[in-house]
Design a protein that fits this description.
The protein has three domains: about 5-70 and about 105-180 and about 280-335, FAD/NAD(P)-binding domain (3-Layer(bba) Sandwich), CATH 3.50.50; about 180-275, D-Amino Acid Oxidase, subunit A, domain 2 (D-Amino Acid Oxidase, Chain A, domain 2); about 355-485, no CATH class. The strands form four sheets. Strands 5, 6, 13, 14, 15, 16, 17 and 18 form an eight-stranded mixed β-sheet that branches. It starts with a strand and ends with a helix. With about 500 residues, the protein is of the alpha/beta class. The longest helix is centred in the C-terminal third of the chain and has 29 residues, at about 400-430. It has helices spanning about 15-25, 50-60, 110-120, 170-175, 235-240, 245-255, 305-325, 335-360, 365-380, 385-390, 400-430, 435-455, 455-475, 485, 490-495; strands spanning about 5, 10, 30-35, 50, 75-80, 85-90, 105, 125-130, 130-140, 140-150, 150-155, 160, 185-195, 200-205, 215-220, 225-230, 265, 270-275, 285, 290. The protein is globular, with a radius of gyration of 23 Å. It is built from 15 helices and 20 strands.
């Protein structure tokens, strides 16, 4: 093994999170290296969707112009089963601090390559085709031994940043690996062609085959689209669900139901992957290291989106790393500011989304939740205010938990009030016709099956929901704007300093 080349920081992983923190540190004069096991460009299992918060970061990094001309995504089409429940503008893409009112679908072989090139351009040292094999603390720092092609190499630094994805070797090496199926999703995606022009309209699909999860069709400008399906890992293991089978079924359903997809055909081999969501995020700091991006579970608990969250986590981590280098303190306490900062940024929205993800984990209640989902999107189609506020829970930056709860309960109260005392009694008994009585029956039947099938799991699930309800209380009653709207703390200083 050759002698180790020394850096201030070594970043393991060259995806968006790794490239962003390498860029942010290098432009501040930090000697930083990126070790990436693949050789770019390379494919990555992902929906490829970059929402407005992510585009803001790419603009600040001067990367947007380097991306291939994408199709702005401004509208959405939502199916609940074969029922078209919503079609219209994405209601929560509103003007914000330097926020565009659209998203982009950027294939990861393009996005990741451009980001890594940007980090390299400002001074980061990039080692591609370099797979970290072992990490160990040596002389107050971290020694990383890697395989580079047919040879070997070693680097060392006082700080290592794990940006190496779901199966992070950094997390595993330092006892930070997490594999809780309650906070993991399994996905399958492929590129398809033969898509008719949609005018920048993304499609989301909910049904029993995908619960708890969803399918997507994100169009690109050349008649191609990213199509995929994601399902909660726990449901797959407990109920024999399969993301590949759900993906195949989704393609058939889109051909039948979606006017733009009647001739869709595969343009690439379907690929599968796993994401770990924010509900399973730990402290993400330890002696001599931090975890960002997918390695740190910075993924939306409801949508599985992680590109923007990963880049945000890296910008949030940057001041902690700079301060540690300045102070020469690299132990857990010296890096603890990272957890305080990312919790302040993400908790107000992510804990609420994690609560909803926990509530919908019960597969036996899928009929109830799909009924509610359908009516929610029907209501969004009628009421722009409802669409903007409550719709933000599914991919928006400005998630306001209390406002969402108030909207949902007010709609429910209106429905009950219309029925009158006699009608309410009929609904509660399950004998009355109509959607409220149908909801009550679906809830009652699902609850009964859940208890009968596995009472131990059922009551463990209830306890988990109660714990997450308690965790969400501080942010539920908060009145300040969700911090994700303004962007990560220090974003302007980091990107423009």
């Amino acid at each position: 093994m050759p002698s180790a080349e020394k850096f201030d920081v070594v970043v393991v992983g060259g995806g968006p999170a790794g490239s962003v923190i390498a860029w942010a540190l290098a432009r501040r004069g930090v000697r930083v290296s990126v070790m990436e096991r693949a050789t770019f460009p390379r494919e990555k299992v992902c929906g490829d969707f970059v929402e407005p918060g992510g585009l803001r970061i790419l603009a600040d990094m001067e990367c947007l112009e380097a991306l291939e001309a994408p199709l702005p995504i401004t509208h959405s089409r939502v199916y609940v089963g074969p029922h078209l429940a919503y079609r219209g503008p994405i209601p929560y893409y509103e003007e914000g601090p330097r926020l565009p009112t659209h998203g982009y679908v950027v294939p990861r072989h393009v996005l990741d390559t451009r980001l890594l090139e940007r980090a390299q351009a400002v001074g980061a040292r990039v080692f591609e085709g370099c797979e970290a094999r072992s990490l160990a603390r040596v002389d107050g720092g971290v020694m990383i031994e890697a395989r580079a092609g047919k040879g070997e190499m070693a680097v060392s630094a006082p700080i290592v940043v794990g940006a190496d994805g779901t199966h992070s070797v950094v997390a595993k090496s330092f006892g930070q690996r997490r594999a809780d199926p309650r906070h993991m999703a399994i996905s399958q995606r492929a590129y398809v062609e033969g898509i008719e022009p949609t005018g920048g309209e993304a499609t989301i699909w909910f049904d029993e085959d995908l619960f708890p999860g969803y399918g997507w069709m994100f169009p690109m400008a050349d008649g191609r689209a990213n199509v995929g399906a994601g399902i909660l890992s726990e449901a797959c293991h407990r109920h024999g669900l399969s993301a590949p089978k759900a993906f195949d079924a989704l393609l058939r359903k889109l051909r039948l139901a979606h006017p733009a997809c009647g001739a869709n055909r595969l343009a690439s081999r379907p690929l599968g992957g796993v994401v770990k969501t924010y509900g399973g995020a730990g402290p993400n700091h330890f002696d001599n290291g931090l975890l960002v991006g997918d390695a740190g579970s910075f993924v939306d608990p409801l949508t599985g989106e992680g590109i923007t969250q990963g880049m945000e986590s890296s910008l949030i981590a940057t001041p902690t790393v700079l301060h540690a280098l300045e102070q020469g303190r690299f132990d857990t306490r010296g890096l603890a500011q990272f957890e305080r900062d990312f919790r302040s940024h993400f908790d107000p929205s992510m804990l609420f989304l994690d609560l909803w993800a926990a509530i919908t984990r019960n597969w036996r209640l899928r009929e109830f939740w799909l009924r509610v989902t359908r009516r929610g999107f029907d209501e969004a189609a009628r009421d722009p205010s409802f669409a903007s506020v409550s719709g933000a829970a599914f991919g928006g930056l400005d998630v306001r938990p209390l406002a969402i709860v108030q909207q949902v309960w007010s709609r429910l109260l209106v429905d009950f009030t219309r029925e009158g005392p006699a009608g309410i009694a009929e609904i509660l008994s399950g004998r009355a016709p109509g959607h409220l009585a149908g909801d009550m029956r679906a809830w009652r039947d699902g609850w009964t099956r859940s208890v009968a099938e596995d009472p131990a799991w059922h009551f463990t699930w209830l306890a988990d929901v109660a714990i997450k309800w308690a965790r969400v209380q501080p942010s539920l009653w908060g009145t300040r704007q969700n911090p994700r709207v303004a962007g990560p703390m220090g974003l302007t200083e980091i990107t423009r300093g």
